[in-house]
Amino acid sequence: MNKRKILVPLGDKSYEVTLEAGILNNISEELLKIGITKNRKILVISNEEISNLYGEKFLNNLKDNKFQAKMVLIKAGESYKNLKTLSEIYDVAFEFGLDRNSIIIALGGGIVGDVSGFAAATWLRGIEYIQIPTTLLSMVDSSVGGKTGVNHPKGKNLIGAFNQPKAVFIDPETLKSLPKREFSAGMAEVIKYGVIRDKELFKYLEIEKNKNELINLKNEYLIKIINSSIKTKSHIVSQDEHENGVRAILNYGHSFGHVIENLCGYGKFLHGEAISIGMNIAGKIAIEKGLWSKEELERQKILLESYDLPTEIPKINKEDVLTILMGDKKVRDGKMRFILPKEIGAVDIYDDVEDSLFLKFFS
Amino acid sequence: MNKRKILVPLGDKSYEVTLEAGILNNISEELLKIGITKNRKILVISNEEISNLYGEKFLNNLKDNKFQAKMVLIKAGESYKNLKTLSEIYDVAFEFGLDRNSIIIALGGGIVGDVSGFAAATWLRGIEYIQIPTTLLSMVDSSVGGKTGVNHPKGKNLIGAFNQPKAVFIDPETLKSLPKREFSAGMAEVIKYGVIRDKELFKYLEIEKNKNELINLKNEYLIKIINSSIKTKSHIVSQDEHENGVRAILNYGHSFGHVIENLCGYGKFLHGEAISIGMNIAGKIAIEKGLWSKEELERQKILLESYDLPTEIPKINKEDVLTILMGDKKVRDGKMRFILPKEIGAVDIYDDVEDSLFLKFFS
Fold it and tell me: By three-state DSSP, how is residue B170 classified?
């Protein structure tokens, strides 16, 4: 079966993720299926690169089917994920006459998705939106779960909202135009799901044949791992939408990932690459605390590296590490919380990690 | 009894409005009662005028009780209810170290409340906040119901979120420092509740003695009408939080009110004054459609005027009226919807009002 559907069960905010090669070419049909009627205005938010690849065809498909659609492009890059870009979207929304019954579609990677979802959360106090992620990272992570927002000059994602999409459509075909390095970065999050909850996925990724087929972007294999990743994410998010508890485990590798992104300058490492290094650090801490086995830490390292991900910790000043960690919004009541593995497929949340325990890994 | 509590029943978002003269002097006690522990940071958002009157005492009460509190002032006036002011609040939030467990308190009128509620909705994807309205308008209207947001250069409240407060505290004593004209403007919303749902309140307001006591700001009388107003609002909001149906009746008088605010220049009429004129226009349309009696329209006019509110329609170009009405976000699928009275205490929503029917009232 080439089409997969994954339910994200969140009461009256539940929605489905539809995963199918080529789905982008039949977008109007999919919209009609989920009850988007043709009298509703659609604002498609994308960026130049994605728009050059799929924009015209996508928009034409909507217009040929009598949808009243318009596309607005935002600049690519983390530095444009800010209030100014949001403000530009509001201007277009006003000019286009986006009303309470209209809908926003995010067509692009994580930045497009996050900004679009937040625009939808806040235009006229909230209108519906749909995620169509085009990068591996956004397919397995940000497009599902409703975290939306923009950056504050002092920190990533400080401004935002929990806002679940009405639907998510994923077309693995779009990965064929994704730079190899970004594909690898997305694999870091896939491997993360393996470590935190899905031993079978981890083992699947270790198998040489699967690895080759994935790197060659075979749809069947891509669908398998995307499906598994989203299933895990859906399961966790449905238990704890607003990250008051278990959802935090999705941040495995992220605290140190943010440290690395911040201190090495945004852009040196891609998000997924920083997460890969962060997972390695978290693993080392777990060893120090006697939680995990060295053999499994080594398996994690080998798997990350086999998908061309970095694991070596860059040179970073210890004091800077502490400053960033303390400023991280995952701190609660002044206590730093870390997600540490106990075995492949199981992690837990710890707030009793001594600074000295992780600072030794930095120079 | 001098203390009133009104429940706003919204499932796990339910909260209480506490109404008591002098409650501002015991704010720490009230916070502790609703479970705000002293380790939580509190950012108080206010404006200069309110801060000059109550700010120091308020902050000292918090600090004397070992709360970690800070106050930030925003500029008064509709033109500062924008993304830039919001951005300044985010900067203070960052510097103060506002975390997920922190809380925002809005101390002031409707603008302070709307901006604060939206800041709370969007800082770290949402933290808790408390409304302490200090104007009659915000006590009976904007502090309850969770509508928060800022203006877009092209229109009021286009950017925002539904975000219910954790609690609302109302101290009628603060009305003693409110300019007479603003008190009257607030009375327009109180009278509105009479017309849309509460015939008893309407009759109460008509009684000469009550009117005099209200104008003299007698707490007992103020508490009576604020309590009645909030009860009606609470009842309606709990049926339809996101204004997909019945909540729209709270906008009685507002469509034409917005037209008047827009076209006469913001500032010429206060919001409540524009609503008063809007209610008179809505009443006239109801007469034209044969829904309402001329006697009751006259009673509405006399009541509004007896609280020093304007009812006469200013000179406005017909075409401009249409432009503003069509741009109003209450338009759904291109249809204009009007709230029209059938009798004092009962209104309904109509989407079949011919343009000619109301344009005749404009010159």
Answer: strand
- Nearest by CB to A329, which of B86, B91, B124? B124
**B165 and B237: one domain?**
no
Q: What is the pLDDT of residues A289-340, one digit of tens each?
A: 999 999 999 999 999 999 999 999 999 999 999 888 887 655 555 678 899 9
Q: Is B102 left (phi over 0), alpha (psi -120 to 50) or beta?
A: beta
- The residue among B177, B194, B229 that closes a domain is B177
- Search chain B and give the residue with CA nearest A84: B83
Indicate the number of domains in chain A: 2
Q: How far apart are CA A235 and CA A231, in angstroms?
A: 6
Q: How far is CA A1 from CA A170, A201, A224, A233, A294, in A?
A: 15, 19, 11, 22, 39
Q: Is the pLDDT of residue B1 over 70?
A: no
Handedness of CA B242, B15, B116, A110 (dihedral sign): negative
Q: In DSSP terms, which residues pair with A346 in a beta bridge? A: A343
Best of B114, B159, B332 to substitute, by most chain A Cβ atoms within 10 angstroms, is B159
Residue range of the domain that includes A131: 4-177
CB-based contact A7:A226 (threshold 8 Å): no
Q: Are residues B189 and B96 in the same domain?
A: no
Q: Where in the sequence numbering do the catalytic residues of A fall?
A: 125, 147, 189, 233, 243, 247, 251, 254, 258, 271
CB burial string B43-56: b at 16+ within 10 A, e below: bbbbbeebbebbbe
- Distance (Å, whole) CA B119 – CA B45: 10
The answer, yes or no, to whether ipTM is higher than 0.85 is yes
